[in-house]
Amino acid sequence: MNAFGNLARFYDAVYADKDYAAEAAYVLKLLDAYAPACGRLLELGSGTGRHAIELARAGRQVSGIDASSDMVAIANERIAASAPGHLSFGTADATRYREDRQYDAVIACFHVLNYMTTPEALAAAFATAAAHLPRHGLFLFDSWHGPAVRRSGPETRVRDLRVGASEIVRIAQPEHDPARQTVDVKYRFFVRQPPAAAWELIEETHHLRYLFRDDVLAACAQTGFELLLDEEWLSGKPLSDATWGACYLARRI
User: Fold this and answer.
1) Which H or E element spans position 4?
2) Reduced DSSP (H G I as helix, E B as strand, rest coil) percent helix, strand, coil of the chain, to 5
3) In the chain, what are the domains?
4) What is the pTM of this model?
5) What is the pLDDT of residues 221-239, one digit of tens each?
């Protein structure tokens, strides 16, 4: 699952326009609607810590794990610089992580569960959530929504970016395999750091599996969850074949 070894240093530049504060507020609104005393959170796939920091600013105690030690290092730098208390990050695999501690809710934001590329891996991530929740604890996550991916398919995208003085061109080229329900996204970053004239090429391929509602229900059944809610991420609209981002909320039974 460690797909961000080379790209961690560009991650925040790529997603500079992402509204982490609004997304954290959305997550807390859903959690509080079903568990008003939801103060201790475990985040699977916490990345560079942007969601966790916003949640901590809202007064929640957040522990984040990520399989990329490079991403975790950036997150820990944020804590040292200006992040609020009640926040920690560590390197771990979401399919195998265990600690002797329980939380009020487990979250996995920004398509983390799409990196679980088999039904077995997805169930293992659900089992990690279950292992850290008491009865009635909540598990909230988002995902690429299968009907939308099948309907329109992912597209090649090109972006021009800057990180400090560095010029960056990012190309994301997907390869869709409907039979396996997967998308391999090949990332190519062309990087030039003045005064150098030459461009450096960095390549990584991210292997993802999009989810249908039945996939989520099957994982819930295997690991002791009941599905409480499914809706479009952020908007709260019903899911449709035009919905790319789905949000699911499950409760441990």
Assistant:
1) none
2) 30, 35, 35
3) 8-148+210-252 (3.40.50.150), 152-209 (2.20.25.110)
4) 0.95
5) 999 999 999 999 999 999 9
